[in-house]
């Protein structure tokens, strides 16, 4: 059977999907001078292939099917499987309509298709609900999928074949990059575990399946297979909480070094799941970058959305340890919680700077469908266009801040974080005390310019798109 796998490029702005926002995806459009620059950088430096499509390619190829892959062109086949997203679903359904008109049966997989099947139902012959591998295994064995097809959760992730990157258009140029930026252009996503054991009400990562992890040996075997095929690869662990099981991570680091695997990697986790001894071990195994969520500086705000606060002293200690070890750090922040005010958002942005991470990403609170937060805030949600649930667009009525103020504060956060001397100094190690003192004094001067009026010059909306 000729099977087409379609992971379609976004048609507007920078679209990032698959494991991003649990699979709903995000879309960044340049709505100000600062965010336009950030959008362009993301679009050109953050091309990460779909691990979902690579898994499905491995399953289908092992069963003897002819697997084709596309990011844009409509290819002829017996069946096409389209990776769904929330933020670009109209582009995906248009592609499906064209493919069906040419005689191809089309199905959708992914979180968006699972939780909002009505968006895709009129454009598909089947919709897979749940993690897609079990249903695609049935398809590979000759079973005809029709309508809404539940896909059972696989209890043993280690039983899956390794992703076939060669079948989804990935070449050998995704190597470790030792330079200013935190990662090369792209990388190899690896899922050491799935879902998340935490209970943050705003996060979609845990709404499709329960948390479970793979064996250390199985993960190391996959890394070895990547290293055998690609020279000095850069690996992106896409687990929402990579260091949840500390002993397992330590064992994996030992396995990487024992096997002499020549790779570098990044991961995402909570800062309270890190300590200097663990960081040292991970660095020796090839750790280059850590992404982590802070979300808000207010413990009360975090508690109201089910997120366990982390003591500020521990957060600073971990970031300082990363600096000593040469590990780059990226902090994630959410602006616009129901309890937020202009002042509390400013305090969160100030904290993002004082914490000292290499980079920071700011998003607006988004009540994603099927999350507990959406159910709590449903009466506040005014946006009817699901594509605008992208993390950068206001979708609900905030109790005290207007949509214009929230959009302004988001752009101002990027301006405040990135337009300061110490940001550029963080990209290169500055050892001399007098120079760091000078940078700190320059930071104070720049901070003095960041009044509402001065920030507005850099943050006001502009009629451009990236």
Can you walk me through this structure?
The structure is a single chain. This protein folds into two domains: 2-150, Cobalamin-binding domain (Rossmann fold); 171-384, TIM Barrel (Alpha-Beta Barrel), CATH 3.20.20. It has helices at residues 33-45, 51-62, 89-101, 111-115, 133-140, 216-229, 246-258, 276-285, 299-304, 312-325, 342-355, 372-377, 403-418, 421-427, 433-449, 452-459; strands spanning 2-6, 14-16, 26-28, 66-70, 79-83, 105-109, 126-129, 147-150, 188-190, 193-194, 212-213, 234-237, 264-269, 287-295, 328-335, 359-364. With 466 residues, the protein is an alpha/beta fold. 45% of the residues are buried. It has a six-stranded parallel sheet with strand order 4-1-5-6-7-8, sandwiched between helices. It is built from 16 helices and 16 strands.
Secondary-structure blueprint of this entry?
Elements: E1 2-6, E2 14-16, E3 26-28, H1 33-45, H2 51-62, E4 66-70, E5 79-83, H3 89-101, E6 105-109, H4 111-115, E7 126-129, H5 133-140, E8 147-150, E9 188-190, E10 193-194, E11 212-213, H6 216-229, E12 234-237, H7 246-258, E13 264-269, H8 276-285, E14 287-295, H9 299-304, H10 312-325, E15 328-335, H11 342-355, E16 359-364, H12 372-377, H13 403-418, H14 421-427, H15 433-449, H16 452-459
Parallel strand pairs: 1-4, 1-5, 5-6, 6-7, 7-8, 9-12, 12-13, 13-14, 14-15, 15-16
Antiparallel strand pairs: 2-3, 10-11
Helix pairs in contact: 2-5, 6-7, 7-8, 8-10, 11-13, 13-16
């Amino acid at each position: 059977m000729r099977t087409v796998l379609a992971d379609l490029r976004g048609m507007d702005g920078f679209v990032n999907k698959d494991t991003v926002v649990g699979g709903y995806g995000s879309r960044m459009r340049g709505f100000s001078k600062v965010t336009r620059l950030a959008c362009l950088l993301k679009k050109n430096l953050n091309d990460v292939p779909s691990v979902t499509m690579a898994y499905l390619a491995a399953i289908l190829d092992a069963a003897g099917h002819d697997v084709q892959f596309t990011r844009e062109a409509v290819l002829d086949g017996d069946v096409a499987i389209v990776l769904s997203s929330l933020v670009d679903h109209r582009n995906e359904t248009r592609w499906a309509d064209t493919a069906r008109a040419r005689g191809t049966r089309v199905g959708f997989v992914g979180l968006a298709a699972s939780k909002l099947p009505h968006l895709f139902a009129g454009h598909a012959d089947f919709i897979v609900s749940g993690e897609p591998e079990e249903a695609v295994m049935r398809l590979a064995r000759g079973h005809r999928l029709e309508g809404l097809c539940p896909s059972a959760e696989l209890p043993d992730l280690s039983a899956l074949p390794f992703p076939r990157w060669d079948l989804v258009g990935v070449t050998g140029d995704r190597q470790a990059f030792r330079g200013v930026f935190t990662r090369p252009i792209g990388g190899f996503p690896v899922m050491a575990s799935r879902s998340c054991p935490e209970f943050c009400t705003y996060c979609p990562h845990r709404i499709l399946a329960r948390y479970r992890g793979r064996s250390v040996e199985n993960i190391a075997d996959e890394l070895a297979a990547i290293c055998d095929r690609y020279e000095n690869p850069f690996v992106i662990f896409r687990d929402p909480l990579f260091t949840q099981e500390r002993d397992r991570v330590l064992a994996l680091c030992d396995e990487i070094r024992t096997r002499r695997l020549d790779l570098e990697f990044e991961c995402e986790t909570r800062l309270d799941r890190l300590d200097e001894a663990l960081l040292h071990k991970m660095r020796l195994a090839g750790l280059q970058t850590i992404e982590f969520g802070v979300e808000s500086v207010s413990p009360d705000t975090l508690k109201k959305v089910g997120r366990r606060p982390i003591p500020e002293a521990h957060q600073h200690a971990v970031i300082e340890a990363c600096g000593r070890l040469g590990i780059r750090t990226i902090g994630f922040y959410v602006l616009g919680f129901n309890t937020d005010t202009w002042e509390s958002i400013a305090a969160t942005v100030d904290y993002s700077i004082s914490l000292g991470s290499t980079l920071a990403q700011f998003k607006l609170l988004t009540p994603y469908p099927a999350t507990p937060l959406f159910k709590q805030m449903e009466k506040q949600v005014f946006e009817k266009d699901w594509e605008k649930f992208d993390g950068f667009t206001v979708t609900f009525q905030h109790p005290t801040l207007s949509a214009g103020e929230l959009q302004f504060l988001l752009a101002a956060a990027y301006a405040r974080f990135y337009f300061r001397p110490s940001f550029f100094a963080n990209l290169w190690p500055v050892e001399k005390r007098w120079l760091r003192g000078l940078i700190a004094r320059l930071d104070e001067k720049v901070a003095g310019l960041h009044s509402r009026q001065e920030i507005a010059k850099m943050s006001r909306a502009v009629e451009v798109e990236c």
